[in-house]
Amino acid sequence: MALDRSNPVPNDLSAFWMPFTANRQFKKQPRMFVGADKMHYTTADGRQVLDGTAGLWCCNAGHNQPRIVEAIQKQAAEMDYAPAFQMGHPKAFELANRLRDMAPKPFEHVFYTNSGSESVETALKIAIAYQRAIGQGSRTRLIGRERGYHGVNFGGISVGGIVNNRKVFGSLLTGVDHLPHTHLPDQNRFVKGQPEHGAHLAEELERIVALHGAETIAACIIEPMAGSTGVLMPPKGYLEKLREICTRHGILLIFDEVITGFGRLGSSFAAEHYNVMPDLITTAKGLTNGVIPMGAVLATKEIHDAFMQGPEHLIELFHGYTYSGNPIASAAGLATLETYKQDGLFERAAELAPYWADGVHSLRDCPHVIDIRSEGLIGAVELEPIAGEPTRRAFQAFLDCYDKGVLIRTTGDIIAMSPPLIISNGEIDQLFGTLRDVLQGLK
């Protein structure tokens, strides 16, 4: 059906099979955004909704940023597409240089993808291929973590550990094992920042090494701060222990920073925030402010140079995507990084973090709240599930917040919030004031 221009909502919603959505429920009562500017979305019925989630953890600079809009418009008129196989265009190289300059010191090379899921697949493939390139071809196993989220492709859900993302898709990749998750609610409840208990869980990697043999393991991938599973901060000392074990056994450590990259914790990357350096970093989301799909894997010089062997006319890594380093995405990425820099948004996130944490934790006395966690500009409010109806209570909170003009996100019975880094103190107050009203009214 054609769109009626007098009504921004199509009169037929059946064709679009929506991702991670209760399609039947949504299409009975659709929630449509038709505009966005700075901290707010505009709904089809003309209401303003405060964006408490930065879209899907991605619009870190807010919406309708002039530098990004202008860069996309200019690039589309100048050159819409250029192939990245055996050809190049300047902005892809310029953006890679900018990423290298802002990344932690060990990271000197950038491999472009189109999403966080593709960045994970790319990092896993690079890790296995790297081990082969250095004469460790028996290292093909991958280690993930329970409750981990690494996108939705087969590699990502294989190393991931969220049951509903895995259980209906068959046996997945072979040769994958999992560390235990770090969620210890009996010991680490209502914590600001890193919890005190749980560093010992990194030592489970030693048990996995003993079971399979270090010579079979290529890489271990984790989110330094787990986002989509419900905002789980790493226990103090956990990342350091994991790094030490991986180094000792020749296992590459991959940080999935699709959520934590680009200022979410007040630093360029979580690797800097926690002062623990992995071997590969996956990124996406905030790279282009969510405006154009783009991802990237950051690699150390050591990993990159291991592939740069043999005759120079031969392809070193048989991997890539049609849209790797897309010109319009590259332009968006450059404008996004410039916006972060010129507007001091990473520093702003660090300055706002204490006020944000106080706001999140002010909800501790609300009905049904059993835990609260926060770090940087991320917060989670965990609710006691309704007996026999998991997820229903948090989803009702999502619907009620939307009706009251605030966008939150839920995962299970956990409310997750991650606003654009441009949020003000007053908007933080509005967000948590609205959520308090909603929680007070939940059954």
From TrEMBL:
Tree of life domain: Bacteria
Any one Gene Ontology BP term: biotin biosynthetic process
Sorted UniProt keywords: Aminotransferase, Pyridoxal phosphate, Transferase
UniProt cofactor(s): pyridoxal 5'-phosphate
CDD domains: OAT_like (cd00610)
InterPro entries for this protein: Aminotrans_3, Aminotrans_3_PPA_site, PyrdxlP-dep_Trfase, PyrdxlP-dep_Trfase_major, PyrdxlP-dep_Trfase_small
Bilayer-spanning residue ranges: none
Pfam families: Aminotran_3
Recorded GO MF terms: adenosylmethionine-8-amino-7-oxononanoate transaminase activity; pyridoxal phosphate binding
Similarity remark: Belongs to the class-III pyridoxal-phosphate-dependent aminotransferase family.
PANTHER family xrefs: ADENOSYLMETHIONINE-8-AMINO-7-OXONONANOATE AMINOTRANSFERASE, BETA-ALANINE--PYRUVATE AMINOTRANSFERASE
Name listed for the protein in its UniProt record: Aspartate aminotransferase family protein
Organism the protein comes from: Gymnodinialimonas phycosphaerae
